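ENTRY TYPE: paired fold submission
RECORD: A
CONTENT: sequence, then C-alpha cells
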Amino acid sequence: MTLLPEWFLWVAAGLVGACLGSFLNVCIYRLPAGESVVAPRSRCPECGLQIAWYDNVPVLSYLLLRGRCRGCGTRISPQYPIVELVTALVWVAAVVRNGPTWQALSVAVFVTLLLGIALTDARTYIIPNEFSVGGAVLGLLLALAPGGVTIRQAVIGAVLGFAVLWLAAVLGEWWLKKPAMGGGDIKMMAMIGAFLGPLGALLSIFLGALAGTLIFLPISLKTRKLVPFGIFLAFGAAIAQGWGGEILHWYQSTFLV
C-alpha cells in the first residue's frame, strides 16, 4: 500500500501523461515521414523559429500563446493540446482504476500506443513499426510484471493476433485480386495480443471489424477510399482493454449457458 495520497498519484500520472502526449505528437508527425524524433528540436513549420522550452509546456503553452506561433503568429494545430490532454486523462484513468500498479502502467502505455497508431493511420495510412513492433516488445516485457496478462498469454496473444490478420490478408488478396490489408495492421495485432492476450486479441479484431463495417465501409464503398483499418482496430482494442472481461462474461452467460 502506498503512503502517498491518491490525489498526488493522479496529478503525477496526469503530468507524466501530458509530457508523453507532447512526445507522442512528435512521433505522430515524424515517424511516418521517416524522421528522427530526437533531432532537430521542434520548430515552427512556417517561420522556422525553434520552439523554446517555455513554449513547449503541454497544453499550458498552447493556451498562453492562444494557439499561435510566438514568432510569426501562424495558427498551431489544436491536435497538439488535444493529444496532450487526452494522453494525460488516459494515464490518470489508468491509475484511478488500477492504483499504483504495474497493470496501471501497462494499460496507460497500451492506450497511448493505440492513440498514436490511430492518428498516424488516419493522417498517412501508415502504422510505424516503432508503435507496432516496438509496442509488442513493450507488451511482452510488461507481461513479466505481476497482476496482468502473463508472459505465456502475451506470447500466445501476439502470435495469434498476427496470424489471424495475416491469414485474413492472404485470403482477402486471393479473393479480391489486390492487397486487402496493410502489413502495419498485421503487426499492430501482434502488439495488441501482447498486451491483451489471445482472448483480448480476438475480441479486438471482432470489435474493430464491426466498427469498421458499420462506420467506414458505407463511406468507403461510396468514395472508393482506402479503409484505415488501424483506427478501428485501435478502437476495438481500447474497448477490449477497458471492458473485455464484462463483454466476454455477458457473451458466455447469454449464449453459452
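RECORD: B
CONTENT: sequence, then C-alpha cells
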Amino acid sequence: MGTKKIVFATDFSENSAPARDRAVEYAKTFGAELLILHVVNSRLLGYPSFVERVPVDLALIEQNIRQGVEQELDAMSEDLAKEVKHVTTYHRTGAPAEEIVRFADEYEVDLIVMGTHGWTGFKHLIVGSTAENVVRSSHCPVLTVRAK
C-alpha cells in the first residue's frame, strides 16, 4: 500500500504554511494526489443546523465567508499546481476535526497533514486543539507540523 492521496487541512493561517510545504514535499515524493481542505468552523457562524431559519444577514455573512474560502483555495491550488501534478480543493462547514476525519474517510486518504497551531488562544483551553482531535480520531496516519 502506497501513499496515493494526501489531504492538507488548512485554516489559512501563517502557522499552516510549514504543513503546506511538507504536504507538497510528500505529494511530490510519493507522486500522490494532493487534496486541500478548509473547514469553516460552524461554531463561529452561529446556528448552521437551522439553515432555513437563519436570518438573512447571517446567511449573507456565511455566503461571503464561503466566497472568500473559495478564492483562497483557488489561489492556493493555482500556486501548488506548479509543483504537484494533481491538486484539488474542498471546503466544508462544521466542527473542523470531525469534518477533516470524515473527509479523509470518504476520500480514502492515506495521510493527513496539518499544522499544530492555527487559530488558537483561550478557546484552545475550552474546546481543545483541532490537530489533537484529528490525531485521536483519524483512521489514517496524521502528520502534524509545528509552526516555526
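NOTES ON RECORD B: The radius of gyration is 15 Å. The longest helix spans residues 56-80.
STATUS: closed
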